[in-house]
Amino acid sequence: MAKLGKRTRAAREAFAGKADLTVEEAVALVKSYATSKFDETVESP
Known about the structure:
The longest helix is centred in the N-terminal third of the chain and has 10 residues, at 6-15. 44% of the residues lie in helices and 0% in strands. The chain starts with 5 loop residues before the first helix and ends in a 13-residue tail after the last helix. The protein is globular, with a radius of gyration of 12 Å. It is mostly helical. It contains 2 helices and no strands.
């Protein structure tokens, strides 16, 4: 099994247990962990 990177682990820990966020809160959380210099897309499960 592949190992997760530091940024991926930190992002997963930030999202853990936060299934009942509003759209605004979720967007703010995603933006706070965006580390790339291009537009990232968000896909819903």
